[in-house]
Amino acid sequence: MAFSYRHRKGHGQSMVELLAGLVVLIPVILTLIDLAVLVISVTVNDTVCRDAARACAAGPPAQAVQRAQAVVSKNYKPGGAITSLTVADADVTRNNVDMRVPPFGGPVPTSTPGSPPSVTVTTHMKVRPPFLTQVVAANNGGQFDFASSATYTYTYVYPNNQTPN
After folding, report:
1. Which of 22, 45, 52, 78 gets the highest tally of CB atoms within 10 A of its CB?
2. Which one-letter DSSP state was computed for residue 92?
């Protein structure tokens, strides 16, 4: 009889150890999942920002904002942990760009000689992790705000629209 009592006592001890380990292990695993979601979200934000800046630099400077917004809307689908991904008109900055169209075509003119014309795009992302790290961002509605910025030199060349006489 004593043998079975000790066996049951040892079985109960292993259950307590298992539960104590799970109490520690489950929050750690959930936090790691949250951190993975945050890292993936930051990577997505950076990639979309670079793509938007590249799209802006590949066309006429007057349409840069529309191209940046088109790239963001193409790459962002609502749902999941990413609650919003935006680029506003003020987030597209044309650097050293002369907005006049050259009459005989050519590259985008610069407003400062010796400095190439470029465009800077900034994207803003809000992320709500699925588990425990919402507590860290409780003062911001459980969301984390990330911003990414990218600058590209204009590669667009205006076409020659002049007709011969």
Report:
1. 52
2. E
CA distance linking residue 11 with residue 16, whole number of Å = 9
Instruction: Break the chain into its structural domains and give their ranges.
Output: 2-158
* Cβ neighbours for 148, distance < 8 A, ≥ 6 positions apart: 42, 45, 46, 48, 49, 122, 123, 125
Q: What is the 3-state secondary structure (H, E, C) of 122-160?
A: EEEEEECCCCHHHCCCHHHCCCEEEEEEEEEECCCEECC
Indicate the DSSP class of residue 29.
Answer: H
Length of the chain: 165
Could you tell me where the DSSP H helices lie in 58-91? 64-75
Asked if residues 87 and 106 have their Cβ atoms less than 8 Å apart, the reply is no
pTM of the model: 0.82
Which secondary-structure segment (H or E) carries 107?
A: strand 106-107
**Which tokens belong to 9?**
């006592």
Which of 10-14, 44-48, 84-88, 161-165 reaches the highest mean pLDDT?
Answer: 44-48
Helix (H, G, I), strand (E, B) or coil at 97: strand
CA angle (102 as vertex; 99, 106 as ends), nearest 5: 110
CA angle (66 as vertex; 126, 150 as ends), nearest 5 = 55
